[in-house]
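Sample pair:
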Amino acid sequence: MSHGSDDVKALLRANIAAIESGKRSSLPGARQTASSKRKARPASNESVFADRDKEESDDSPERAFRKIERLACVREQASEALRRRLVREGFCEDAVEEAVARALACGLVDDLRYADVLVRSRLSQGKGRRGIVAELEDLGIAVDEVASLSEGQRVGDDAAEVSRAIALLERKPPRSKNAREAAYRKLIQKGYGSSVASSAARQWHESLRSSQFDQTG
C-alpha cells in the first residue's frame, strides 16, 4: 500500500475518532499517526501469522467497522447493503449492527448521499424511474427524501420520463421486425412504467416511420 493511501486512511480514522469524541483533528496529526504506523514492525514471522489468524477469527464490531471503512473509501455505501454483505462474509449480526450504527453516526455512511449518487448514475444510464425506486426501496431508503429523484418531476407528470425513454431508444434502438413492441419491452426492462414505456415506444416508432418515409420519398 502506498504512503499516500496510508495517509488518507489515517486521516479518515483521525476524523472519525474526532467526531466520536467531540474533538477536532488536524491533518499533521493524522500524518504523524500514519507515519508511526508505517514504522511499526512485528518482532517475527510467528507474530505476523498469529496476528493474522487472530484477525481472521475475529468478527468483532471493530473489525466489521474497519471493513466498512475500507469499502467506504472506494465508493458510497448503503447501510442495508453493508449489513447484508457483512453477514454474508461471516460477521455476527450484533457486530454488524453496532458497526453500521457507528458508521452512520460518524457520517462515514449516509443513505441519502448514497441514494443521490445512485439515482444520478442510473438516470445517466437511461434507466427508468420505476426501476430506480424499486432499487432504493429494496435498500430501505425513503424515496420521498431523495431530492435528485424528484428533480424536474411533479406528481402525475411523466413528460420528462417519456423524453428520457425516447432518448434511450434513439441512442440504442431495438433490432426487431416489430420495432414498436421491441421498444416497449426494452423500456420495461430498463425500469420504465408501462404507461411511460407505451407512450415513448409509440412516439419513437412514429418518428422512425416518418423518417423512413422521408428517405424513400
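The longest helix spans residues 194-216.
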